[in-house]
Design brief:
Elements: H1 2-33, E1 36-42, H2 48-61, E2 67-73, H3 78-91, E3 95-98, H4 103-114, E4 119-122, E5 133-137, H5 139-154, E6 159-165, H6 171-184, E7 190-197, H7 202-215, E8 223-226, H8 229-241, E9 248-250, H9 261-266, E10 273-275, H10 280-291, E11 300-303, E12 306-308
Parallel strand pairs: 1-2, 1-3, 3-4, 4-5, 5-11, 6-7, 6-8, 8-9
Antiparallel strand pairs: 10-12
Helix pairs in contact: 2-10, 3-4, 5-6, 7-8
This protein binds beta-D-fructofuranose.
Beta-D-fructofuranose (FRU) is lined by residues 44, 47, 49-50, 123-124, 166, 170, 172, 200, 228, 252-253, 276.
Length: 321
């Protein structure tokens, strides 16, 4: 009697294990067959350039069956991005790619992740050396090139500039501004008459610049230097609304598409822009090398920026760089 009972229990257990195995086997096999789980912590997806970065990451990752990419969106919220990184770590990612919203609040969690896995910092720098690799263009150089353009444009007479700034705590804001100012430092007669912080966003740039123009109706403005194309477009719209056609606009990003910087140059909205590469494809290539235990001799990969003006915009109108 006792033996029969044990047989029954064993049989039921065997059936249960068999059903469980058959149900879950495809999932288990799937995970086992994909050796590398990469986490991408994106600071926001509210701007076209960020969407392009994610598209570049996904497109390149799809070329490698051994990679699975998990992406999060912090919606420009530092605390949310810290939570995102924790969530990715708990998920068991093998490597973290991160484009931090603001440097200071994100630095500690990036250091923490770096104690455990390789970390690639993409486009926006952090305040420590606790990461494996930085990939991005040189924002100080872009700022300097914008400054050189302004000096040539205004000539010996000089003039007035309004600077539209990105998010204050993000490194590209600081570096694009510093490079620009360094380049103008040998010219006393070029004055930055106003700094407007629009946090990288088009509509706040439009509203704030319009308000400025309303209160400074008689002030001459020659150039609006904006830290990205969406804010430059916003500022341009404000100037149109205020019937001010006496100034030129400079942007950065150089995306393709109707509201992309290259088309805006073509249409005469912007005088110049700079193609600021997302680094998405490069990040996946480097991630794979790191996961395959290949090491890098350098800690930074600096991507090229290309200045776009009305003379060279045509070939770039449809081309992804
Ligand atoms: C998008 C963006 C770009 C800019 C970059 C700087 O979030 O604002 O427009 O070039 O970030 O990190």
């Amino acid at each position: 009697m006792h033996k029969i009972h044990i047989y029954r229990i064993s049989l039921m257990l065997a059936i249960f294990v068999l059903i469980f195995y058959m149900t879950w086997r495809p999932i288990v096999a799937d995970i086992e067959e994909i050796p590398y789980l990469i986490g991408m912590s994106q600071c926001n997806l509210g701007e076209p350039w960020r969407i392009k970065m994610n598209e570049d990451l996904i497109a390149r990752a799809q070329e490698y069956p051994e990679i699975r990419l998990v992406l999060t969106d912090a919606a420009q919220d530092n605390q949310k991005q810290i939570e995102d990184v924790k969530w990715l770590m708990d998920l068991g990612i093998d490597l973290l790619i991160i484009s931090p919203n603001e440097s200071e609040p994100l630095t500690p969690i990036i250091s923490e992740a770096y104690q455990k896995i390789p970390v690639i910092v993409l486009d926006r720098k952090v305040n420590s050396d606790d990461y494996t690799l930085f990939i991005g263009a040189d924002n100080r150089v872009i700022g300097m090139r914008a400054g050189e353009y302004v000096k040539n444009l205004l000539g010996p007479a000089g003039g007035h500039v309004v600077e539209i700034m990105g998010l204050p705590g993000s490194k590209p804001t600081v570096e694009r501004s510093e490079g620009f100012r360094d380049s103008l430092s040998d010219r006393d007669n070029i004055r930055i008459v106003e700094e407007i912080t629009a946090n990288w966003l088009r509509d706040p740039a439009e509203d704030s610049f319009f308000a400025y123009l309303q209160t400074h109706k008689s002030e001459k403005i020659d150039v609006v230097y904006s830290h990205n194309d969406p804010m430059a477009l916003g500022a341009y719209r404000a100037a149109q609304k205020a019937h001010r056609t006496d100034m030129v606009f400079i942007g950065i990003d150089g995306l393709i598409g109707e509201e992309g910087g290259i088309n805006l140059v073509k249409e005469g909205v912007l005088d110049i822009t700079f193609i600021y590469p997302t680094g998405g494809a490069e990040a996946i290539e480097c991630a794979l090398q790191l996961l395959r235990r290949q090491t890098f001799s350098q800690k930074e990969i600096i991507l090229d920026n290309i200045r776009i003006d009305k003379n060279n915009c045509d070939p770039y109108l449809h081309r992804e760089t």
